[in-house]
UniProtKB/TrEMBL annotation:
Residues annotated as signal peptide: none
Family membership: Belongs to the short-chain dehydrogenases/reductases (SDR) family.
Identification of the protein by name: Short-chain dehydrogenase
InterPro entries in the record: NAD(P)-bd_dom_sf (IPR036291), SDR (IPR050259), SDR_fam (IPR002347)
Pfam families: adh_short_C2
Domain of life: Bacteria
Length: 162
C-alpha cells in the first residue's frame, strides 16, 4: 500500500495497479460472460454484473478501481444490445453492502470508512441477501425479463442524482 489509506491518487497509480484491477474486473467479467453465452442462448438467460458507484461518481482515489467498474457497466450495456435478440437480459448492480471486505476495511481505516458511511442518506450499508439478493432473484424471474442494460444503484441513496 502506497498511502495510509486503501485508495490511491491517480498520479500515484502504476500500470501494474491498473492491470491487476482490470484483470480481476472487466476482463474476468467478459471471460465469464463469453463462456456462458452458449448456455444463455439456450435458456434465454440473465446476466447480472456487479460494479460500484465509484466510477459513476468519479470518486477521488479510485482511478483503477472506478474506471474498471465503469468498463464493466459499458460491457454490460453492449451485451444487452447484442444479446437481446437471443432473449438474454444483461444488467448491472452497484451495491453498497455489509461484506467481510468492508468490515475489514472499517477495522483498518475507521476514519475513511466513516466518511463513506456519512455519504449514505439512509445511514447504513445494505444487507446483501435482503437488498441485493432479492433484486437479483427478481431480475432473473419472468417479471424482471423486460429490464436490460440497466444500472441499479443499491447504495442507500449515496449516488442519487439531481
Amino acid at each position: 500500500m502506497k498511502t495510509n489509506d486503501a485508495f490511491i491518487l491517480l498520479e500515484e497509480l502504476t500500470e501494474e495497479d491498473f492491470q491487476a484491477s482490470y484483470q480481476s474486473g472487466v476482463f474476468a467479467t467478459w471471460r465469464c460472460m463469453a463462456a456462458c453465452l452458449p448456455y444463455l442462448k439456450q435458456t434465454h438467460g440473465t446476466v447480472i454484473n456487479m460494479t460500484s458507484s465509484a466510477g459513476i461518481l468519479g470518486l477521488v482515489k479510485t482511478g483503477a478501481y472506478g474506471s474498471n467498474k465503469e468498463a464493466i457497466r459499458g460491457l454490460t450495456r453492449i451485451a444487452a444490445h447484442e444479446w437481446g435478440p437471443f432473449g438474454i437480459t444483461v444488467n448491472v448492480l452497484n451495491p453498497a453492502m455489509w461484506t467481510e471486505t468492508f468490515r475489514l476495511y472499517r477495522k483498518q481505516f475507521p476514519d475513511s470508512a466513516q466518511k463513506l458511511m456519512d455519504t449514505i442518506p439512509l445511514g447504513d450499508l445494505g444487507d446483501p441477501e435482503l437488498h441485493c439478493g432479492s433484486l437479483c432473484v427478481f431480475l432473473a424471474a419472468p417479471e424482471g425479463k423486460y429490464m436490460t442494460g440497466m444500472t441499479f444503484d443499491l447504495d442507500g441513496g449515496a449516488s442519487m442524482r439531481a
